[in-house]
Amino acid sequence: MAAGSDDGPTDRDEVRRHPLGNLWRLRSYLRPHALEFALLMLAGLAATGAGIAVPLVAQRVVDGPIARQDPTGLYRLAGLALLLGLAEAALIFIRRWVQTSSSVAMEAAIRDDVYAHLQRLPASFHDRWPSGQLLSRITSDLSVLRRFLSFGVLFLVLNVVTYLVVVVLLVRLHPVLGVLVATSAVPLFLIARRFGRHYHTASRRMQDQQGDVATLVEETAQGLRTMKAYGRGPQLAARFAAGTRALHDTGVDKGRLLARTAALLDMVPNLTLGVVLVAGAAAVSTGRLTIGQLVAFVSLQLMLIWPVQSLGWIIANGQEAATAADRIQEVLDTAPAIVDAPGAIAVPRSAVRGRLHFDAVTFRYPGTTAAVLRGVDLVVEPGETVAVVGATGSGKSTLLSLVPRLHDVGSGRIALDGHDLRDLRLDSLRGLVGMAFEEPTLFSMSVWENLTLGRPDAGADEVRAALTLARAEFAYDLPWGLQTRLGEQGLSLSGGQRQRLALARAVLVRPAVLVLDDPLSALDVHTEALVESALRRVLRDLTALLVVHRPSTIALADRVALLEHGRISAVGTHTDLLATVPAYRALLSAEPAGPPSPRRAVGPTPGGSPLVHS
Ligand SMILES: Nc1ncnc2c1ncn2[C@@H]1O[C@H](COP(=O)(O)OP(=O)(O)OP(=O)(O)O)[C@@H](O)[C@H]1O
Fold first, then answer.
1. By the 8 A CB rule, do 201 and 285 touch?
2. Has residue 459 been placed in a domain?
């Protein structure tokens, strides 16, 4: 994916040209822990040194006290070997202790940054990225990175150092055999390089598939009711099984690739060991090598087996970490499209009159070709309530979402009291605009926290007033009153209850402009009438833009704007539009536009039957 765009996740099989580049770009997270890393590296190197010294002590034991039958010398060297063993154990403990805290802290720092970045990204980004993909990036990808930062990098360094030091010692003990062991690095390097290339592709595929599976689980959990109602369980299960099968197959491919490589990697040091044993025994028999030296040589060589064996794992871990870094950078590289302009100003609520002016506004969703809005002109005067009416899919919700800048206009401008919305600071704008949607989102936190989302400083009286206004006093009767924690997405409440809480939340902000996207659709006729009468009082003091689908709600508006073909084709009072605009009349009666039929009564239907038929 190109940096800076908010297109969806990257093409599945695309292999990055520089898989390690994105890993390297995360180095800034290492900086605060540089000291800890230096310490654990030192402890690791010292432990490796202590481990390497043991075979050298063994050489002296065999060639010295054992050959000379000198028990005192033997005890001295045995004591030294014991001390070296203890030192190695203590150093390994220190290394692991430091390692855990620093890598977990780095993981948390990256996670916080990714989350904060996700918050800054516009609605269009979240429209296009499946939430499971984001979830898997912020959870499993970061765990992979932590494992690499805590184990992979360290063992890579320690193993390379061990290899080099041991090879130098081996060459000093027996140059020919030492060089033989050193040259075994060539096939090891070739095997590792080939493995790395293949493994990178497989890990990218697997990590993307994990995201797909997470998306399926999330969709199923959210759409459980719909799924059950339509009896779609088996189909969804089949879709899920296909996703997990793909994941399984990639996992098996990866595992087999690792197994094949591990076997090859294993073979190289074991073959060299065999050659060393035969050639070493011959050298001892001709007196060119002492038994002690042979013991030391073989013991040192055995120390290379683990670094070589672990090479496959380290490369695999490194490739997965590079892929994880890739996937995380894809999110971090997406520039937030809606940000404060340089010199953006904050306008205090008291200074806002509330004149909202849409001036030749156009809008097209990213990734689509047809514009939804094609030159919308509309003025909402301070204190006025305008209802936007139009056929389903005509762009009413889209138009409303431009006011708090959930999306930005393509061309034209929207001005609040003459200020282009893009010249206002986002936090200021969103403090001035209250919004409630048809599908209200409540969070899995307490009712109080949900209500005060836009006004954390609101007092109990203000919250009560907002709840009363929205006819949402039921919240006090919940088991723990306003402290009752809501289920995920507020699903423990009815649709109407959720809408009323969302309305109370929007009103509590004391907005200068209230934007309501059909917020009463889930209320029964009786409650709707109550909420409407309360809303009428609120709407008197502010500018409001409403999308309504029910005839009864349209009466809340001073004027109605008809949205057709991406433009406002008519504005006027409900009565005027009914009398003069056939398209409006047709919309209300759900009939094709044409001359009004003298026999058909048009207008708001008592009892609130749907105004706009979907
Ligand atoms: N996130 C999106 N990405 C691409 N296209 C979108 C997106 N959201 C909406 N659209 C398209 O934009 C058009 C207008 O949608 P919008 O939701 O604004 O209509 P609406 O008038 O509010 O509809 P309704 O009355 O059914 O709620 C539709 O054609 C819809 O398919």
1. no
2. no
Total of domains in the chain: 2
Tokens of 14: 């695309």
Q: Which long-range contacts (CB under 8 A, 24 or more apart) does 370-375 make?
A: 371/410, 371/566, 372/398, 372/566, 373/398, 373/399, 373/410, 373/566, 373/567, 374/565, 374/566, 374/567, 375/412, 375/566, 375/567
Atom of ligand 1 nearest to the CA of 367: 4
Between the CA of 275 and the centroid of ligand 1 the distance, in Å, is: 73
Residue of 365, 401, 545, 548 to mutate, ligand 1, most atoms within 8 A of C-beta: 365
- Asked if 324 and 374 sit in the same domain, the reply is no
Say whether pLDDT at 565 is over 70: yes
For ligand 1, the distance from its centroid to the CA atom of residue 394, given in whole angstroms, is: 7
Q: Which atom of ligand 1 is nearest to the CA of 547?
A: 22
Ligand 1 atom 10 nearest Cα: 365
- Residue whose C-alpha is closest to residue 50's, from 83, 84, 78: 84
Domain span at residue 372?
Answer: 354-438+514-589
* pLDDT for the residue 488: 58
- Domain assignment present for 482: no
Mean pLDDT of 66-75: 73
Q: Considering the entire predicted model, what is its pTM?
A: 0.67
296 and 234, same structural domain?
yes
Q: How confident is the model at residue 12 (pLDDT cuts 50, 70, 90)?
A: very low
What's the gap in Å between 344 CA and the centre of ligand 1? 30
Residue 67 confidence (pLDDT) above 70 = no
Residue 358 has pLDDT above 60, yes or no: yes
Q: What pLDDT does 6 receive? A: 47
309 falls within a domain? yes
ipTM (interface pTM): 0.96
Average pLDDT over residues 398-411: 92
Q: What is the CA(548)–ligand 1 centre distance, in A?
A: 15
Say whether both 523 and 397 belong to one domain: yes
Question: What's the one-letter identity of residue 452?
Answer: T
> Does 485 map to a domain?
no
* CATH number assigned to the domain comprising residue 414: 3.40.50.300
Q: Which of 126-130, 458-462, 499-503, 565-569 has the lowest mean pLDDT?
A: 126-130
Contact predicate 57/80, CB 8 Å: yes
